[in-house]
Amino acid sequence: MTTPRTPAGMPPAPPPAWPVIILAVLLAVLVAASFATLPLQWRAFFTLDAISSMGEFLAGFAPPELGLPFLTKTAGAAAETLAMSALGTLLAAAAGLALALPAAGRFGRVLRAPVRALLNVLRSIPELVWASILLIAAGLGPFGGTLALAAHTSGVLGRLFADALENAAPHPEASLRTNGAAPMAAFLYATLPQALPQMLSYTLYRWENNIRAAAILGVVGAGGLGQMLKYHLSLFQMQPAATVIAAMLLLVGLVDAVSFGLRRLLTR
């Protein structure tokens, strides 16, 4: 009985992937051209005058405003920012799921292309632009900011949900359909459970992003911590602004931790 011989050498190297190499070269050329065309004044940024001015500016933030009335006001604004992000994400998840079904071809190929085009439009417009438009219709305050978050996030989640549904294994649903199950029942019992953990993970991740976006939207009058920050910075009240910035950091850290824990539970 003879034993099989092991190969004496390594297998030949695969041929070079020229499209990848060409793309990498083009990206390197684009980065080099960007640095060459932009008037980046790195030397002026690190001068002694610039460093001294930055030090004086940062020193104005200390110590933060810690009076009880202001802390109470900041906590209310933080709760408003949190509510904006949570409600905007919830509305976006519902709208995204409704748009993901035709975008994934569940209602035929006729609706797939126009719905995907609509999702592209929704997510290509930034939250600040949506807020500027919707604040005109809804007025200043958190309502317009919530709608702006929902509009942009609907486009993002709708595309992600559609891709998750398309990537689900088709055999379980086909098996149920073959055995006489209704189309909707087969989808709910076979395809949706496959994509649901990934869809929930996407939703929680977008909630993390929306808590930051909600803080920024306040700058254009959408309420919450961003509106407080704009007000105090416009009056050069640096110590109250430092408290608002600290509240933003704590709120973002809290939401990130909660979202990370929930994603870990869902993807086990």
From TrEMBL:
Residues 78-260 form the ABC transmembrane type-1 domain. Keywords: Cell membrane, Membrane, Transmembrane, Transmembrane helix, Transport. InterPro entries: MetI-like, MetI-like_sf, PhnE/PtxC. It is a multi-pass membrane protein. One of its GO terms (molecular function) is ABC-type phosphonate transporter activity. It is found in: Cell membrane. The keyword Membrane applies. GO terms for cellular component: plasma membrane. The chain crosses the membrane at residues 20-38, 82-107, 128-151, 211-229, 241-262. Belongs to the binding-protein-dependent transport system permease family. This is Phosphonate ABC transporter, permease protein PhnE. It comes from Rugamonas fusca. The gene is phnE.
